[in-house]
Amino acid sequence: MRETIFRDGFRAALAVLTAVLVYSLAGQVGPELIVVFNAFSVIVLYFAVQRGEIFGAILGSVCGLAQDAFSLGVFGVSGLTKTLLGYFAGFVAKRVDVSTVPRHGGLALALSFIEVVLGMGLAALVRQEPVNVHGGALFLQPVVTSVLASGAYALERRLMARRTEPG
Amino acid sequence: MPLWDKRRHVWLLAGLLVFHVLLISVQVPRGAKRSLLERAFFFVLSPVQRAAVGTVRGLGDAWRGHIALRGVRRQNEELRREVFFLRQESVFLRERLARFRSEREVEGLLTAFKDSLLLARVIGVDSANPYRSIVIDKGRLDGLAADMPVCDRLGRLVGRTVEPISLKESKVQLVTDKDSSVSVVSAVAGLTGSMTGRSEETCDLRYVLASSTGGEEGEELLTTGFDRIYPPGLPVGRISKLEKDETSPLFRKISVQPHFRFNTIDVVAVIARRPGGSG
After folding, report:
1. B239, B184 in Cβ contact below 8 A?
2. Whole-angstrom Cα distance, residue A20 to residue B189?
3. What are the angstrom distances between the C-alpha of A98 and each of A11, A20, A89, B248?
4. A116, A141 Cβ separation under 8 angstroms
5. Where does the pLDDT of residue B30 fall: very low under 50, low under 70, confident under 90, or very high at 90 and above?
6. Per-residue pLDDT at B2
7. Rounded to whole angstroms, how far apart are CA atoms A8 and A3?
8. Distance between alpha carbon B241 and the CA centroid of its chain, in Å?
9. Do A53 and B34 touch (CB under 8 A)?
């Protein structure tokens, strides 16, 4: 039991570091890319579907707080939305068959859209003012997130299939 | 089976949600002050960002420095020409300044000016909105503190340092941030006001009375120094649009296009100490 917790904790730490790395490099490519590409959401979705709701919620919480630490917004808003994202991704994945890439993508799209809307609502509630949607570009974020998360999932499945192929 | 074991995941979710709601509730009345947890996250993760960006830049520099040498000579020539004209400009300005101050004072001012500047590289942008903040690779160990002005490579205002400031990394609030406010004056008409961000590409120039005259599109805006954060005379932006404010007839509605562009802020200068004054 202790070994599993340690292993999961190590995986979560690696996942957070990967998210920070990818986000940092994306910012160097083009600062406006950050609006449509949220590395933290991609990482949370990718791992939550595989590892379940508990891991997803904790990873979502840490990734969300990491995202908030690199932002001037209210610390905790992304933490809250990504906790929900990670939890429900793991929760649904355990009860519904999302093993095919289209289903996986559909789940990722739906949850990341809800996350973006919830994040906008919370930010507007806290600051008592409308949120900048960057001319609608912010709504592309769920599409990009679901494509990348499902793409990573599909790639992993292909690699696993190759590894288990006889001969 | 105990309730905890049956619904462990629900309790965990509830606990995490309560934690985040409390975190947000504690954060809001503190305003710009950053919590200890946020500073801890930034302290731990900003070196990762610095390492990632530094590695990619290093590879790029190695490529440019050793493999892709085409264009290096031309770039060298351009830089030599630029330095030549900058030196001429410096001599011209020194000579003009010497008419009002002694040679010793001028030398002292210029030395103090050079000593007050700290060069830094941008290693990250705001994770939620790129027009709010950036992260640079200088921190407390380099002498940085909050509320230090930051300029781009052409000496134009970019923003100011804000908390959290780590040992070797700092956050910079951009002038385009919604919570940013800079006291400015227009170069020709002398209109004074407060340039505030919108967390997007353009800013507003507020508190310019509707009864005031002057001001036209393209007019340069400079800092006044009244806010005691930004030294006077720094170029900030240009007026892009002037119109009547329907919502507030007392003031004019003026849009401003800030000077800085993301492609000119790969390297920035932090004014770490006020030249000739206290930091």
Report:
1. no
2. 47
3. 22, 27, 10, 54
4. yes
5. low
6. 53
7. 8
8. 23
9. no
Q: Which region among B58-62, B80-84, B185-189, B273-277 has the lowest average model confidence (pLDDT)?
A: B273-277
Find residue B222's DSSP bridge partners. B185, B235
**Residue A15, Cβ density class (10 Å: 0-12 exposed, 13-18 middle, ≥19 buried):** buried
Q: Out of A21, A73, A83, whose CB is closest to B48? A: A21
The fraction of chain A above a pLDDT of 90, given in percent, is 59
- Among residues B262, B17, B27, B20, the alpha carbon closest in space to that of B126 is found at B262
Q: Does the CA dihedral A43-A44-A50-A51 come out positive or negative?
A: positive
Burial status of residue B249 (CB atoms within 10 A of its CB: 0-12, 13-18, 19 or more): exposed
Q: Is A72 within 8 Å of B38 when comparing Cβ atoms?
A: no
Yes or no, beta carbons of A70 and B135 under 8 Å apart: yes
Nearest alpha-carbon partner for B199 in A166, A92, A31: A31
Its pTM stands at 0.86
User: Which residue of chain B is at minimal alpha-carbon distance from A126?
Assistant: B28
Query: What is the rounded distance in angstroms from the CA atom of residue B171 to the CA atom of residue B145?
Result: 10
Residue B119 touches chain A, beta carbons under 8 Å: no
CA–CA distance from A139 to each of A36, A71, A109 (Å)?
Answer: 8, 19, 11
Residue A4 above 50 pLDDT? yes
User: By three-state DSSP, how is residue B37 classified?
Assistant: helix
Q: Range with the lowest mean pLDDT among A71-75, A110-114, B80-84, B128-132? A: B80-84
> Which residue carries 């007839």 as its tokens?
B249
